[in-house]
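User: Show me sequence and structure for the first protein, then do the same for the second.

Assistant: Starting with the first protein.
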Amino acid sequence: AFKMYDLDNDDMISRDELLAVLHMMVGANISEEQLTSIAERTILEADISGNQKISFEEFCKALERTDVEQKMSIRFLN
């Protein structure tokens, strides 16, 4: 799942990469503001090192702590 979000293959998931994947997943079914909110909240919750990106290790730890995949989906907004 990590590689699906790491679009530039730099072993980090950035806010822009999250936004791009969210756009692919939901298209025009959600506002840009809501997508940005999901991406920023996901980074905030998963980014342990504070570099505004999610490493593979942080991704794994976040999945252990919470259901990040669900939070990165439309269900999160309901």
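Switching to the second protein now.
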Amino acid sequence: MIKKLLGKLTKEDFLSIREFTHKQYRKAAKSEHVILRFITGMEVFMLIFGYFNYNHKNPLMKVYMSLYAILAVASLGTDLVLSAAERNPALYERRRLSLVGYTYHTLIVAWGLTITTLDVRHGGGSYWVAATVMMAVSVFLNLNPLHSAAVIVSAGIYLCYLSCDTNGGFSTGMMNIIIFILIDVTVILKNYFTLYNNMYMETKLKELSMRDGLTGLNNRRALDERIAENDFEGVKAIAITDIDDFKQINDTGGHVNGDNALLRVTALFREYFNDRELIRYGGDEFLILSSFDDKETLERLKKVNRRLSRVPGDVPLHISGGISVPEPMVQITDTIKMADALLYDAKREGKGRFFTSK
């Protein structure tokens, strides 16, 4: 039921719960170092304080000290795993990284329940340790809300049992536990929806910043990002084209005519290449990161030209272009420059021409 509700209230075409959790955990993992180191330091302090101030012959104190040591080691180990993952991009990309968070989340809640059980059974203490731990992990660990809610509800059921067993039946303490669990689950869901919507808006704004406003194609910023990430796998040819006599088209019919020409060329490009291959390079220039070889790319551009020639207008509409082929030892930026140079060679020879590097 909760899963269906989450699906309805979020944009599942953007990210599933699992995908969002993976991305968000990667994003938040860096800030968790402070929390993990604080917990480690606090437990080490408790070990030192306990060693010098408590009766070492008391078996119960040995249990407490063991629990402090377990949490210190678990917190330090989690911190070291996250640090190692940050230095290793391949490990950091794996979905299994979020399992570290799930494991630590479950362990620290179990730790809080154990401490609370000892406090209640042997010292007549309250439930504040478990309550503090459960609220803290709900706020600071941005994990799958289904997992977090399941752990918190399970812990709440156990605390209700502990309260009932200790007090001999229903009590105001049990009612407080139930209210606390409901608040905790609400906090988990609220954090999830807030973070999800923030990530959705960030992603959409980034996508908009990488799209040309007129044609809807990728722009130079999108190209710059691909260059930075060296994201050119499968690119077999690079073409740069521009519209011949574009200034004359603008001067004859105004910018509306120019925009219509750009849209017409874009529409035809989309019939022969996919959106990932097409980039509005600037003005009337288009860059094509073709998944076809140079010969097939040339044939497709010629087909575009033949169809453009049938478009009525005061100024004939056609394109010229240069096509280069990526080489293993040549930077992609140099291959783009080569295509650009070939474009200008083609334009010097006339209109509607294409030059290739081979």
